[in-house]
Amino acid sequence: MKYKKGILYCNKTRRQFLVGSGKSLLALPLLPSLLPEAALASSSNIEKRMMLFSFDHCNLLEMWPSESVATQLVGNIGIKERLLSQMGTVASHSTALTNPLYEKLKNQNQLSYLRGFRQPNWDGCHGNMSIAAGGGRISANKNLPSIDSIIESSRSVYPEGTSLNIRKALRLQFPGGPGGFYKKVGSTTQYMPHYNYRALLNFYNDVFGFLTANTVGDLSKTNQHKSNILNKVLDAYNSSRNNVRISANDKVRLTQHMDYLSDIQRSYASVQTNILSCSKPNQPTTMQDDQLANSRLYIQLLSTAFKCGLTKFGIMVVGGGTWIPGSNVSNFHGAIHGVEGKDAQLRAYQTWWKYQADLIADEFLKPLDVEEGNTGRTYLDNMLTGMIATGLLHANAANSDGGHGGYDSQQILIGTMGGAVRGGRYYNLKQNSDVRKGTYPYNSFLITMLKLMGVQPSEYANATVDGQGFGSYDGYESDYVYKNRLYQPISEILT
Amino acid sequence: MVAVSKKKKENIYKRFLASVSLFVIILSFQNCTDFESHNLGAEQEESLSGPEIITKGQSLYVQNCASCHGPIDTSSKIGKDFNQVSWSVNNIPQMEDLKSLSSKQLSYISKALIFQSEGAGIELNDEGRSQFICDQSQRSKSSLLKLTNREFKNSLNALIDSFNIYLKQDSLLNVFYQSLPDDTVMVKGHTQKEQAKLVSQDILVGFFEASYRAATVITNSNSLGAFPNTNGCMSNSVLDQNCHKLFLKELMTQAFRKKIEDTDVEQMNTDLWDSSLSKIEQIQTTFTTITSMPEFLYKSYYHGDQIYGTNTYELSSYDLAAKVSYFLVGNPPDEILRGLASSDQIKNQSVLEQQIDRLLNTTAAQETIVRLFRESYGYEIFEAFNYPGVITNAVDTNALMPAMTYELDQFFINQVLQRDAQFQSLFTSTESKFNHNGLATIYGVNNPMGATTQLPSERAGFLNRAGMLTKRSGLQTSSIKRGLKVLENVLCVDVGPPPPSAPTSLPELGNDIFTTREHTFMTSEASGTSCATCHSRINPLGYAFENFDTIGRLRSNELIYDLNEVEIGSLSVDTAAETSELNGQRTSFSNSTDLSSQLGESDRASLCFVKHLKEFESRNEVTTSDYCHMNESLNVLYGDKNTNSGSIKDVIKSFVLSQSFRTWSY
After folding, report:
1. How, if at all, do strands A111-118 and A425-428 pair?
2. Which is nearest to B111 in space by CA: B61, B75, B70?
3. Which whole number is the average pLDDT over A116-141?
4. How confident is the model at residue B450 (pLDDT cuts 50, 70, 90)?
């Protein structure tokens, strides 16, 4: 058998490549890397990417519109929605999202609020534990994989042949958070970025080190270069193979070896051939260990990593437990827990969320709010960014003790994952006034995120006790209203 | 704590024995009978050589046993020792007629049966020592061996060094190395062996990405002009084809470890030259392509003069240099070896010997020794390391497991490379080197803080070190695990896995108090089940180590715990036992140092070590075609009437200097 060359230096997008390949693609050996994902129809040819900013001290409903504004039933289980375009400016109903970019995104139907989630037993709304950190586990007690762990180990998201330059999950923490880390492809080495300059530099080198300085790093070109090199290996082998004197068994083994190389070559040629290009970012030059300044630089690098196609998933734990920028409250942590009164609590929250929302808008979202190749959509719209909180504190709830609560929480989504999310809406998933039994399972929100990333149920459900759904299901009552939705994505928010 | 009186213990023991069948009692204690003094027939004094004894025994078996038990090579009695054969003749009515055979004749039959159990292929040499049966007409087959991860990393780094010795420190490159899929495989549950035939897509992706990164590191550096034999042309702003060919020739010579002809370079240049590429892209393409070729990734032998028939060749000088280097130091041939290969001087026996000495004096040889002995004796393999507090309360267990492994790594390095020790010294030396407070506590010595020290006499040899004694955690020691380690790793006896129905832990015996040895004996050897067949071979070797507790501390009494880990008694330990595994004859030993010393003298342990050595080099299970090569090393290990036993280093040297090492066959 003569090894066949793949496409050399093909500048086609993944979509063009797949369409152009037509039936010939079917003639290739069936590799795991070439298996089609059960993707959402409208986004099947767009690289799926997701960034989650997880607010570890939750949310405060007083900062957001009342649940009563959503009046339009969607689906048949009581979920209601309202178009954000019918709710005035974002700044008029949110004290957090005052950056003009959010208004722009609202007008482009790339902003959504989801209200009314419940997570009964996931470490309160120190909710970062449900999605990251903690050794990659939801918690020591539950010993279940977190969403970032699932995604980085998913073969649907990262098929065989994925470049080792890709970081499968970038994990960061904002100062005051409980600790995050990021992990390299195929490596068990964990890194815990700190906010000193040295850690920042390590992060920079590890994520961008392979790009050549002052040149445009084009990941698709890199993959094509690798594909081209492997073609040359196959060619050279073909021209010399008859000179080898080895046993029949060894010939079989060598053929197997070359078959593998041929498969790898095709994987490079076909995986991630969408147009993702970027200039290598400049090395951070600040030599200071200024936490604020370095946090900003981390977020800038995070955004660049997405733009360069160097990761598909990132998570940043936005810690608010011990520190708040721009706050005049001496005891911020106490303030957000209400020990200094409800007014002080609201001010603390508003300041905290606004600071973070502005930072995210300026440093992460804005650089991605440009068209991605010739897809007709921005990077932001092709991916999904979440500002999420697995719980909330009730400033005005009658029986609130100011502690972390797991009921009626609200999530902010930006982008539509290439049109897969019905954006531009305020969704109220709370079916009745009973915040325990009438609010929607947070498990399902995360399952929806996994589905949007193309992760198959078999890749996460096997970690649960009963082999269904994602995460822990402790604490849901037998008469829970959304019992039938525990293991399902929220279809009402999807196209 | 209750001290259990010896009388009470004996009563309990008797009560148990009374509860089992007479048949089991007979089986259990058959070895207590003094069969040697039971003369069953007229002795015929004969003076037979080793091979003659086997032949005689086989002949006697055919005449007296085969009619009932079938041919010897398929007999169910394979492995039966003299005592077992004698007992059967004396007690089984159907064997009444065989009482006419003399003890000597029964001894010959048992030797033939044991010979068969060890695999046909062992004979006695003229000095009565066991050796492999060598058939000069058979030639070892040379399989195509992929570089192991260790060798791949060393080989790629060697190429990078040709540009600049600091480039290999690139952090991302080292991440790629660390990310290579593990290429070791647990073999028979007791050793973790590097695999040279294991090829997977993941491994090849890892190799390729590392090569690509190495090419990036090289092209990003300002060291391109330093690459040898290119006249510095690579530092020019433009790369022309002439320069590319110079680059190719040197790169292929180093990477493929072959003599590269100009025609080879022309062909490769045709394959790789792409005028549309920039200089950087071209160099990156060429470097990555060459280091992804089978000629780089495999240790293969394509050249050499044909000898010994159609498919056997003498290694070319380049192939010999590569084979020696990879075997001894895990590296591709360095500049000196390449030079000697280029001039064919490497084929000169004294030159080769000098190079072996040089290589064995390098740091890289230490890594080879560590791998050789880890793969031989599996001392770095721990089933688990989870001890209850009552065991570890006085021991610092932080990083104890790697400290135990480190101690034995250093032990073998010191013995082989620095002491030039003989094989027996591995089983008798008290030398040690470690730096761990917990290990010092276990040994009852002050922490030597990384210095070489001498341990108490009970630690003589590697078998008495903590790393070998902690193969199962928990409150109780495991004589079975310890015995199995000796039987399988030191004596190369493959007893095979237990049947699927076999329990994974010893059955409970109720509330009576027994030592681990008694418990083990009653529930396996004397259980009246088929377990006894194998456990009668395994367990005695483990009993020798009963003077060490479960974490390896010396003890004279065994503390007995109940299920709640509460201490309920103390019984004295018994380390004396008998075995036929050392030489086929019933041999007694008093304790673990006695056993260890006898193992160091035993032919079977020597045969086993040579087998490990051959398998380590060839990355294949040995076959009869390897026996001639193995015997050469074995004879050095034994020495003879005129020469002392050779050191282990001598054994390794003889292995490389052998003509067998210098040929290849397919």
Report:
1. parallel
2. B61
3. 52
4. very high
Q: Lowest-confidence range among A306-310, B348-352, B627-631?
A: A306-310
From B146, B202, B271, residue closest to A239, measured CB to CB: B271
Q: Check residue B37 and give its pLDDT.
A: 30
Pick from B217, B207, B215: which is nearest to B170 by CA? Answer: B217
DSSP string, A265-310: HHHHHHTT-S--EEEPPPPP------HHHHHHHHHHHHHHHHHTTS
Other residues' Cβ atoms within 10 Å of the Cβ of residue A206: 19
Q: Which two tokens stand for residue B630?
A: 């193995």
Beta carbons of B125 and B640 less than 8 angstroms apart: no
- Per DSSP, the residues of B428-470 read T--EEE---HHHHHHHTS---TTSEEE--GGG-SGGGSHHHH-
* Share above pLDDT 90 across residues of chain A, in percent, rounded to a whole number: 25
Q: How far apart are CA A453 and CA A384, in angstroms?
A: 9
Please tell me which of the candidates A232, A253, A264 has its beta carbon nearest to residue B208. Answer: A264
- Which of B143, B178, B212 is closest, CB to CB, to A187? B178
Mean pLDDT of the region B221-244 = 95
pLDDT in tens, A181-238: 444 444 444 444 566 777 788 888 888 877 765 444 455 567 788 889 999 999 888 7
Q: Are A450 and A106 within 8 A, CB to CB?
A: no
Instruction: For helices B627-638 and B603-618, give the axis angle rounded to 10 degrees.
Output: 130
* Residue scoring higher pLDDT (B613 or B124): B613
What CA–CA distance (Å, rounded) separates A169 from A149? 8
Helix (H) or strand (E) holding B365: helix B363-377
- What confidence score (pLDDT) does residue A213 get? 53
Give the residue on B whose Cα is nearest the Cα of A256: B199
d(CA B59, CA B161): 63
C-alpha A467/C-alpha A113 separation (Å) is: 30
Contact between B292 and A212 using a beta-carbon 8 Å cutoff: no
CB atoms within 10 A of CB A40: 19
Q: Report the pLDDT value the prediction gives residue A274, as an integer from 0 to 100.
A: 42
CA of B346, closest CA in chain A: separation in Å?
23
- Going by C-alpha positions, the residue among B511, B514, B486 that lies closest to residue B574 is B514
Environment class of residue B273 by beta-carbon count within 10 Å: exposed (0-12), middle (13-18) or buried (19+)? middle
Higher pLDDT, B15 or A407: A407
pTM (whole model) above 0.80: no
Q: Tell me the DSSP string of A332-374.
A: HHHHHTTTT-HHHHHHHHHHHHHHHHHHIIIIIIHHH-SB-TT
In this complex, do B205 and A160 lie within 8 Å of one another by their Cβ atoms?
A: yes
Cβ-defined contact of B179 to A247 (cutoff 8 Å): no
Search chain A and give the residue with CA nearest B268. Answer: A236
C-alpha dist (Å) from residue A378 to A85, B206, B241, B370: 20, 34, 44, 56
The Cβ of residue B76 has, within 10 Å, a number of other Cβ atoms equal to 9
For B92-120, the pLDDT digits (tens) are 877 888 888 988 888 888 888 877 766 55
CA separation for the pair A217, B110 (Å, rounded):
75
Interface of B with A in 102-161 (CB under 8 A): 141, 143-144, 146
Q: State mean pLDDT over B225-252.
A: 96
